[in-house]
Amino acid sequence: MSIKDGLLLGRVWRDDVGPEGGPCVVTVLNGSVFDITSQAGPTVRDICEMAEPAAYVRDAAGQALCALEDLLNGQVSGVRLLAPCDLHAVKACGVTFAGSMIERVIEERAAGDPAAAEGIRNQIGALIGRSLKDLKPGSPEANAVKGALIAEGLWSQYLEVGIGPDAEVFSKAQVLSSVGHSAKIGLHPSSTWNNPEPEVVLAVTSKGAIVGATLGNDVNLRDIEGRSALLLSKAKDNNASCAIGPFIRLFDETFSLDDVRRAVLELRVTGTDGFELTGHSAMDQISRDPEDLVAQTIGAHHQYPDGLMLFLGTLFAPTQDRDPEGAPGEGFTHKIGDTVSISSPALGTLTNTVDLSTHCPPWTFGARALMTNLAQRGLL
Length: 380
Fold this sequence. Notes:
Layout: E1 8-14, E2 22-29, E3 32-35, H1 44-48, H2 53-59, E4 63-67, H3 68-72, E5 79-82, E6 89-94, H4 98-110, H5 117-132, H6 140-151, H7 157-163, E7 168-173, E8 184-187, E9 194-195, E10 198-204, E11 210-218, E12 220-221, H8 222-227, H9 232-236, E13 242-250, H10 257-262, E14 264-270, E15 276-282, H11 290-297, E16 308-311, E17 339-344, E18 348-356, H12 367-376
Parallel strand pairs: 6-16, 8-18
Antiparallel strand pairs: 1-2, 1-5, 1-13, 2-3, 3-4, 6-7, 9-12, 10-11, 10-16, 11-13, 14-15, 14-17, 17-18
Helix pairs in contact: 4-5, 4-7
């Protein structure tokens, strides 16, 4: 399955629309990108809320802009990819894979100190992994393991959301603050232990219907979250700390939620120092089904009138030493200039370059700016 076979929905910034340029809704047909922005669908949110988003996009009349490959490679003057969501809330699920759950417990026990991680990993990692690998969260078997771990002094808040009845769902980014393919992605300048998190991101309507999927990088600051889970917002929501894209692949006859359940995400980090890290996240290893995660996020208990983008969590948790001679046992952490690529055949490739959040372009185009821009262009 290839992304080229899919029905794609995304956003670009065009310098040649409106008084100062503006965001446009696009799709892809036969290798070319088409602007399908209209009064019927001036935002991606509006299209996702339609009764049949896939049918609308398939039949939408559009203006040819450029070749898809040229856009992905940043070779189109005056046009650049944005995150494919606009008015959606951006939410994320944590600790949804047993493998990464172990690393969250290690972060907590290490209190954000990477030098302590390896010893703790050797002490408890194997035991917890054997105990939790095949457990269904919230099941009687999971409750029995919970009791055993408490007795052993190994209970953790991360194990609670990993195998307990309630999933961890948090706000990853503000509306319109996510960055897209080829953009810089940001680290808080106080962080010294961090990593990418390759994830599938679902596009969910205000009624809770899942209409498509894309890729995301839920940048993780291990030292800050490890010091205290109450610092989650500082660890997760910073300028340019959320990348989504390159496109939402809408569900149709070629792509469904079952394909998401079978997806394998490949990760590659390439540093300017010559370092390379590879990894993967296999969705068939997830502990909670995507539909369950959506149901725990949106429903009678919580509404999202403009829909949401939902990160599903990751299996990937890097332990490979980046500086084995200078800092053995501290594992991986980003360096400025790292190139991070997350790819899956059905969803394409999302590539970003790491910088400090304070050095990434500031986020200035919010909801008021979007509404003003669309009104000036006669689209509202």
